[in-house]
Each structure stands twice: as structure tokens, then as C-alpha cells.
Specification:
Structural class of chain A: mainly beta
Number of helices of chain A: 0
Radius of gyration of chain A: 13 Å
Order of helices and strands of chain A: EEEEEEEEEEE
Helix content of chain A: under 10%
Helix content of chain B: under 10%
Largest sheet of chain B: 6 strands, mixed
Distance between the termini of chain A: 35 Å
Largest sheet of chain A: 7 strands, mixed
Oligomer: heterodimer
Largest interface: A-B, 28 and 23 residues
Shape of chain B: globular
Number of strands of chain A: 11
Strand content of chain A: over 45%
């Protein structure tokens, strides 16, 4: 019963390096989201997807790219990491449709850019 | 524009008392859902309660209830009989419907401290 799994859980990058965060869900959810959470703040939506092959910008998309080539996976890429991207990143997924379709979250990835 | 507003950065409540956490939202989409999540110090996000925009009655889940006032665009969380384990960050969230692209956004959160 894995739910939403994020890889890696921790990472330290140097400024200018690139990396990809992987989110995998096994619940056959249509919707997937990437958020960042900075100290003392709420979650801010980076990008999201409402289905395989689709992506859309959220509140803070600059500096990030995403892909959803398979329904179960949602990748978040940082092409050239900056210290301002130091944050905890959460992936979430939810079922499509009306009603009580809560988002299920991964455990988070703590990223530090030095 | 801020779509989800939580005006209380921190709240204190005595154990066994009730507490209300405020949340106001802004959307022009007639179809939306409102959620509350709890984030303890361990960092995971725990779903608490949901209210749909067309629901006539306020949602309840155990000690949690959602005071939904649609005309005022508010969705306050009420926790009854507070317990020490309720100390955590609480986030209000909204998922808009087709007009909002089905995205889910969060407020800045309220940190609740329960005193023994």
C-alpha cells in the first residue's frame, strides 16, 4: 500500500546543477501536483497535471519544468538550481471528479541548494 | 491575488476546549471544494475534512467540523475537545472546478498550540 512515493527524500545541490524529482502513485489518480513549502509558510503550487500527457502552471512555476509521460509518474525538474529553490517539495495526487476527492501526499523531498 | 487567506498565524487553546481556525477564500468558479489538512511536526500532510460548494450541510468528521458560510466565502475549521496531539500546523485548501483548471491551492496555515 505505497500511495504516493517521492524520490529522493533529501538532496543537496550546488548552484547551477540540475536534478529531477520523481513522484510515483499507485492509486490510478488522474490529478497530480507539485508544491513547495518554505519555513513557516503554506504549500505553494508549482505545476500540476490533470491527466497523462498534460501539465499546467501553478502559482510559482518559474525555474521548474514537469512532465507526465505516464499516468502514475509526475516528474519535477530543476534545470539550473538556485539558492531560492531551497525548500521542501511535496507531491500529491487525487482522484478526478466531484465530491470528497482529497489529495494524498508524499513524504516530501528536502532540497538544499548551496 | 490571494485566493485562500488564513489570518491567524498562531493560536493557543486549552486542552479539552474548542477552537476555531479561520479560512476565507476567493473564487468565481461556482463549483469548488474546500479542504483542511493537518501537518504535525513530523511533516506529513493529513487530510481532515472536506466541504463541497454545493453541499447544503456543514461537514463533520469526528471532532472536526467545518463552518461553511458560502455568502461570506468562509470555511472555518472547528476542533472540539482539543487534545495535546492536535498541536500542529493546519492548512485550508481549495480546489476549483473547470473554471479554475482543477488546481488545488493552500493557505499559509495556522499553527495551533494546545496547552495542558
Amino acid at each position: 500500500n505505497a500511495g504516493v512515493t517521492q524520490t529522493p527524500k533529501f538532496r543537496v545541490l550546488k548552484t547551477g546543477q540540475s536534478m529531477t524529482l520523481l513522484c510515483a502513485q499507485d492509486m490510478n489518480h488522474e490529478y497530480m501536483y507539485w508544491y513547495r513549502q518554505d519555513p513557516g509558510m503554506g504549500l505553494r503550487l508549482i505545476h500540476y497535471s490533470v491527466g497523462e500527457g498534460t501539465t499546467a502552471k501553478g502559482e510559482v512555476p518559474d525555474g521548474y519544468n514537469v512532465s507526465r509521460l505516464k499516468k502514475q509518474n509526475f516528474l519535477l525538474g530543476l534545470e539550473s538550481a538556485a539558492p531560492s529553490q531551497t525548500s521542501v517539495y511535496f507531491c500529491a495526487s487525487s482522484y478526478e471528479g466531484e465530491g470528497d476527492t482529497e489529495a494524498f501526499f508524499g513524504q516530501g523531498t528536502r532540497l538544499t541548494v548551496v | 491575488a490571494q485566493k485562500i487567506t488564513q489570518t491567524q498565524p498562531g493560536m493557543f487553546v486549552q486542552e479539552k476546549e474548542a477552537v476555531t481556525l479561520d479560512c476565507t477564500y476567493d473564487t468565481s468558479d461556482p463549483s469548488y471544494g474546500l479542504f483542511w489538512y493537518k501537518q504535525p511536526s513530523s511533516g506529513e500532510m493529513i487530510f481532515l475534512i472536506y466541504q463541497g460548494s454545493y453541499d447544503q450541510q456543514n461537514a463533520t468528521e469526528g471532532r472536526y467540523s467545518l463552518n461553511f458560510q458560502k455568502a461570506r466565502k468562509s470555511a472555518n475549521l472547528v476542533i472540539s475537545a482539543s487534545q495535546l496531539g492536535d498541536s500542529a500546523m493546519y492548512f485550508c485548501a481549495m480546489r476549483e472546478g473547470l473554471g479554475g483548471g482543477f488546481k488545488t491551492i493552500f493557505g499559509a496555515g495556522t499553527r495551533l498550540f494546545v496547552k495542558a
